């Protein structure tokens, strides 16, 4: 039986914010090349694959723009290798269709208000997925070559079946993560 090892592609700068514990959520609508034409959570846990496509500093709050600049500089390396250092567990997949509810999240993420609203409007019949993620840092990050299958505007990729990592450490303790998740759910009234 072939065991799939999944990774969710996300801006490298957003992964830095998740790794720091400043943010526990990602907003997803799906990539242009999604198999199902909309976003779906394919696994309750997965690795996070740093993506350098579509990062634009004007889409993030000023205090996070340096992370975009740094990640773009890192992503332009000639060696075409990528390092995976984060693992995520989905605590909640909250589907939103209201701009007003999305505005309530403004204090909980790195993006400018227009970023979330534009994501909601794109494919307007589909909801915006707000994923509350428990993030873990791999004790030994894994560096892989960038394969053609990893490139392009899609949410999920399959890592090599032999991809295995050892121990990992949660970014936030159970109580701190629970408090942040509860605050988000409270503000969204879910």
Overview of the structural elements:
With 190 residues, the protein is of the alpha+beta class. The protein has a single domain, classed as Archaeosine Trna-guanine Transglycosylase, Chain: A, domain 4, CATH 2.30.130. Helices cover 26% and strands 31% of the residues. The chain is built from five helices and seven strands. It has helices spanning 12-20, 65-75, 99-104, 113-121, 174-188; strands at residues 5-11, 25-28, 45-51, 81-96, 128-145, 156-159, 168-170. Strands 1, 2, 3, 4, 5, 6 and 7 form a seven-stranded mixed β-sheet that branches. Helix 1 packs across helix 2. It is globular. The termini are far apart. The mean pLDDT is 85.
What's the gist of this structure?
With 190 residues, the chain is of the alpha+beta class. 26% of the residues lie in helices and 31% in strands.
